[in-house]
Amino acid sequence: MSTKDWIEKDFYKVLGVSKTAEADEIKKAYRKLARQYHPDSNAGDTKAEAKFKEVSEAYDVVGDPKKRKEYDEARRLFGSGGFRMPTGSGQGGGFDFNVGDLFNRGGQGGGSGLGDILGGMFGGGGRTTTSTTARPRRGQDIETEATIEFAEAVNGVTVGLRMTSDEPCATCRGTGAKYGTVPKVCLKCEGTGMQTSVQGGVFAMTEPCTECKGRGLVVDQPCETCHGSGRGQSSKTMQVRIPAGVQDNQRIRLKGKGAAGERGGPAGDLYVTVHVHKHRIFGRQGEHLTLNVPVSFTEAALGAEIKVPTLDGLPVTVRIPAGTANGSKLRVRGKGSVRRDGTKGDLMLTLQVQVPHELTDEQKEKLQEFSSASDQPDLRAGLFGSS
Questions:
Q1: J domain: from which residue to which, for each copy (predicted)?
Q2: DSSP assignment, residue 41?
Q3: Averages of pLDDT over each 10 residues, the chain, 387 residues
Q4: 17 labeled binding residue
C-alpha cells in the first residue's frame, strides 16, 4: 500500500470508532469486526475477506500508539488529498493540487517525490531507488558458561573467558567481496536486507531477504577467505565481571560484549550462564546465607554462648537462649550475600540439638534425677483428647 493510501484512508471509520477513541475501545472494535469477517467464518466470501483485510490493516496502524501518532499527524497535514498553498497574488485564494503528485512524482529535475521522505513513516509505501544505502547490521549474540566457587558467587568475581566469536572477515574487512572489487546493493530487497511476503492473502510477514541473506549486499566475486559472507572466526580472552549475589545456573546478559556489527551496526550481547560450586557447610536463600549449627542438650537447656564460622573466615559469638528447642533459628546480621546496593544480607542459623546416643551409668543416674525433680506434665496428654 502506498503512502498516499495510508494517508487518504480513514482507518477510524473502518473500525467504527472516533478519532479520540481510547486504545481499549479500538481493540474491542477490532476484535468484534475480525470475528465477524474472519475467512474461517466466511468461507468463499470474497467481500468478507476483503473487509477482514481492511479491518486488519486499520488496526495495524491505529492500534499501535507510535504509528497512530504518525498517522494522525500525516492526515492533519495532508489528509484532504490536496492542500492549500498561497499564490502570492495577495487575493488570498491560493490553489489546490493533488497530494498524489507529491507521493507519486518527483520534480522536473528528476528528484524523488515526498513519498520517498514519508515512505518510512509507516514501514513502507514510498519509492525506494537502487541507491538505497545498506542498513547497519547488529552483531550476533554469544553464549558461554563460567563455573565459580560459592564465595565468589556471594561476593562477585572477575573471570577470564576465552571465546570464539563471529567477526568481520580480516581479508575483505567485512564486505564479502574479493580484493579489488566492491559489493553491490541487492536488487531484490533494495539494500534493506528484508523482504515482505503475504501469507494466505491476509497477513504480511517480513523476513531476511533470501537473495542477500539479510545483508542488503551481494557480491559478484566473493572473498576467498569468507566465501562472500563477510564474516570470520576470531578467538579472544575477555575479562568478565560476575556480579555479587549471582545464583547457580543464572544467565547474565552483558550488553554490547558479543560479536561486532556490520556497517556501523551495534555489537551483539554476551550471555554467560554461571555455575556455582556448592559449599561444604553454607547454603543460600536469596540474599541470605544459611548454616546448620549443632548444639548439645545442655547448651539448649541451660543457654550458652557459642562461636560460629562466617564465609569471610572470621567467627562470631552467638548467644543461645535457655530452653532453646531443636530447629530454632537465629540471625546474624550483615554476614550474608552482597546485595545490588552494596549492603549485605544475613547469616541464618538453624540450631540442631544433639541427643547423646550412649550414656554412662552416672549420666543415666543424673538424668533420671533431673526427670524426677522436674515434675513435668504429660507431654502427650493432648494426643488422646476427644476428637
A1: 10-75
A2: G
A3: 63 91 91 84 82 87 86 70 41 42 42 42 41 64 89 90 73 80 83 72 71 80 81 75 89 85 80 93 92 93 93 92 94 90 91 90 87 77 72
A4: no
